[in-house]
Amino acid sequence: MKKVAMASICLTAILLLHAACATAAETIRYNGCSITLVTVIKPLSEAFTQKTGVVFDLKGKDTAFGLEKMIAGECDIVGSGTDKIDKYQQQAGGSLKAFKFAQEGVAIGVNALNPVNDISMARLADIMTGRVEEWSAAGWPQGKKIVPVSCAQGTVYYDNMARTVLKDVPFSAGAIYAQVNPLVPAEIAKYPGAIGYIGLSVLQGKPGVKILALDGIALSQETMDSGAYPIRMASFLITRGEPAGRLKEFLDFCLSSGGHEIVAKAGKFKVVK
């Protein structure tokens, strides 16, 4: 009887150890927007790993690439700056679910040498389309030629600027396009006459760059919540089907007060329900 009891105890211990190891080995695979990855998913995932032991396989390029990997069964969650995913929704049989987890303010940055602190939306459109080419006509009397810096063509930041500010007028023929969006601050810092745009989470704190107010409105949680700040986007996490288990726990964590603190430190803004 003692032998049976001992065997039962050993078996139970082995099963518990196996379950613990399986839990510790759980992996959430991320792909999609590289900016979302670098600015918020990395710190969010690190905090969640510390809390639960779940590990993350983090890869980033852009939303389209991430969705292709999801449809192929190669990732669990995709970061995106848009929920307009109809093309991929059809391929996924209507199973894609988008969850808004942060707001993104699109910041306008100039070279730190530029004395301009504020710019109007109309003037910004004139500059980015090439209608105004000299800083002497845009608030910097001693300024030289303007160098418009744009996000990479075809990305959600590029599309948002083209639609909301340029009203689909083409970008200036003299615009410089960053090879990848995280390089926008470096391009602005390189040219004294540069002006460009990217999410605040990428632009804040970068050397050689200054962030402008838009129509006198500074970018903040308050101006995002009120709708006063005019260039805005949302950050989404996309799953295939309703999330369950650890994946749902991670999404819930992203929307929790602890997740909001991490999002705010990264330069994005919490979603106000």
List keywords for this structure.
273 residues; alpha/beta; D-Maltodextrin-Binding Protein, domain 2; 2 domains; 10-stranded mixed beta sheet; 11 helices; elongated; disordered N terminus
Notes on the protein architecture:
- The protein has 273 residues and is of the alpha/beta class.
- It has two domains: 110 residues, D-Maltodextrin-Binding Protein, domain 2, CATH 3.40.190.10; 123 residues, 3-Layer(aba) Sandwich (D-Maltodextrin-Binding Protein, domain 2).
- 41% of the residues lie in helices and 22% in strands.
- It contains eleven helices and ten strands.
- Strands 1, 2, 3, 4, 5, 6, 7, 8, 9 and 10 form a ten-stranded mixed sheet that branches.
- The protein starts with a helix and ends in an 8-residue tail after the last helix.
- The relative contact order is 0.18.
- The N terminus is likely disordered.
Q: Quick summary of this structure?
A:
The chain has 273 residues and is an alpha/beta fold.
State the name of the first-level CATH class of the largest domain. Alpha Beta
Strand content: 15-25%
Instruction: Give me the CATH fold name of the largest domain.
Output: D-Maltodextrin-Binding Protein, domain 2
Proper CATH architecture of the largest domain: 3-Layer(aba) Sandwich
Sheet having the most strands:
10 strands, mixed
How does the overall form come out from the CA principal axes?
elongated
The N- to C-terminal Cα distance equals: 60 Å
Question: Could you state the order of secondary-structure elements as H and E?
Answer: HEHEHEHEEHEHEHEHEHEHH
